[in-house]
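The authors assume throughout that readers already know how a fold can be written as discrete tokens. The format is easy to grasp once an entry is in front of the reader. For illustration, here is how one protein appears when written out as sequence plus structure tokens:
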Amino acid sequence: MSTALRTSLLSAGSTLLVSLALALGMPGQSWAQAGGDRPPPKVPVFSVKPTDTEVFKTYTGRTEANRHVEVRAQVDGILESREYTEGSRVEEGDPLFRIDPRPYQAAVNEAQADVASAEATLAAAQRDWRRISSLFERGVASEKQRDDARSALETAQAELAVVRARLESAQINLDYTEVTAPIPGIAGRRAVSAGNLVGVGDRLVSIEEIDPIQVLVSFPVDDPFADSPALNPHPENRTPAELVDVVGPDGEAITGELNYRAASIDRGTNSMLLRGVFDNPGDVLRPNRYVRVRLLVAEPKGALIVPETAIGTGAEPGSTVVFVVDDENAVEQRRVTLGPMSEQGRIIESGLESGDRIVADGLLKVRPGATIEPQEYKDESR
């Protein structure tokens, strides 16, 4: 064997012996010196204290026209023209259709003539009454002549009232030939084209008022806030509400009020129905759109609130826990009962007391009985 080969084998053997000595532990060296102790994990710690807060909940709703009116013909006749643009906004009183007015104008003219004739007859009866009553007072006219003159006067007065009523009726029918919008809103597609004969009651068009617009909201009967004033609105106790992810033309929030709660439960869905009325500037909302409605359902005072990241799952099914830090920075697992989510975090119903320090985040780094190095917890929502 050559000198170079012998030297190489001796060097390799020495290296192997050193490695085995480190692995098995040579005198004067410990495992801790070889590997080193792990320092306690650094985790954010939060001190629990009573806080006044607000609880908001979001429910699903569906939009509906505030008013839906079907415009129908109120007189018979030929539909001469359509005066509006389909799908456009109309204001109350705007012309929609025109029905041939000539027969109704003729009826008005005839009624006006009847009124003029009745007025002339009444004037003559009044003159006769004044003359006969004067003669009767002087003893020249008989009692029968006086009574006949009075009867003629009363008959003329009644006849004038009758023909005036006929004139009013004829004028109403004439006015009905000009079909106008009864409410402001969006006028739909015409149901009858110009040139057709329409009868009393025939539908001409539908108008939907969508500013303001209604929103129908439903919630389950077992909702934890089902008995709260917010979910029991009525006209004298309205609930302010806001639509989520919907803004007006200028970027402002769409707000409104809930003013009605149904008296009965929907059997099919086991839910209750609420109704709200919301401003709809620029007609950004249309009927039959699904929206989310945000309500202030509670305002707890002195609630104990923790960050959502501080809540973990317990060993028992469905249980929740937090990690409480004692004065020596040792961690203890504690079971808690969760309340609703607030603006600042999750409300704890039971399991914590004011002043408790808890691990706010990084639960995977800790275990019961372990020691931690507390760090300041920064929560921008507080």
